[in-house]
Design a protein that fits this description.
Number of strands: 0
Order of helices and strands: HHHHHHHHHHH
Number of helices: 11
Radius of gyration: 21 Å
Shape: globular
Helix content: 55-70%
Strand content: under 5%
Largest sheet: none
């Protein structure tokens, strides 16, 4: 069999697989979607954020534990990151050093501030049930804590009130919450609607980049994230995602 024929067969097989992947029916949503991290590791060898009770973490060394905490913080917010830090301390107390304790304390301080913000927004809502800004902002704080399911009703309410000052932001924020609760198509619809309302929102372009990245569309992810950086380079967690996408797109050294 000639090499040209073998190559042709291989290319046809790849093409058939790509077409099947593109047009296959969407799977039914799981009743309780499980958080998975499709992000590549942050110098840890980790490609999945496991549930906190999974025994796989017990095999990690200290370097991997620290990377897992950072990845969890990046992807899921302060509260899940703190829970993982406590698990690190419990599983490997001999490796949990002063730097780890300081990082854990900083996370706890941030969480305390965020919970105070939630109380303040809740008080505002109690005074005025039509305060769309308070609903959106409380939902955003819940996103920072990683409480995505809790956040969605707040964004629903902010959107229902149709207040122009937060309408686009609420769609974008709800899109991110949908992305983190395993509903990528609803996430994409919300994020794109937010961009129609406010094309210069760097947060929405960042979230669109995250969506594309987690769907494996790296070139589209990079374009969206770079546009977000052009609009506002200080957008939270943007630089971390840019590094992840650029590393994923970088040519691999065959000798490595």
């Amino acid at each position: 069999m000639s090499p040209h024929f073998t190559l042709l067969v291989g290319l046809l097989a790849v093409l058939a697989w790509l077409l099947w992947r593109q047009y296959r029916p969407a799977p039914a949503p799981a009743a309780k979607p499980r958080r998975r991290a499709n992000l590549p590791p942050i110098s840890t060898g980790i490609d999945t954020v496991f549930a906190l009770d999974e025994p796989a973490y017990r095999k990690f060394d200290a370097r991997q534990w620290r990377g897992a905490v950072q990845l969890c913080l990046l992807r899921d917010g302060e509260l899940p990151g703190l829970r993982l830090s406590h698990l690190f301390e419990k599983e490997r107390p001999g490796d949990f050093n002063d730097g780890d304790r300081a990082f854990q304390a900083a996370l706890q301080e941030n969480i305390n501030k965020l919970k105070l913000n939630i109380a303040q927004y809740t008080a505002r809502i109690a005074q005025s049930a039509s305060d769309a800004v308070a609903y959106n902002n409380r939902g955003y704080v819940l996103l920072l804590l990683g409480e995505y399911k809790q956040a969605i009703p707040d964004f629903d309410q902010a959107i229902a009130l149709r207040a122009t000052e937060v309408y686009a932001f609420a769609h974008n924020n709800r899109g991110f919450a949908y992305l983190r609760t395993g509903r990528p198509q609803k996430a994409l619809a919300d994020i794109e609607h937010s961009l129609l309302l406010d094309p210069d929102n760097s947060y929405a372009h960042r979230n669109l980049g995250i969506y594309y990245y987690e769907q494996g569309q790296l070139e589209a992810a990079l374009a969206a994230l770079e546009l977000a950086a052009t609009l506002n380079a200080e957008t939270p967690r943007l630089n971390a995602y840019l590094r992840l996408v650029r590393n994923a797109l970088a040519p691999k050294d065959p000798a490595a």
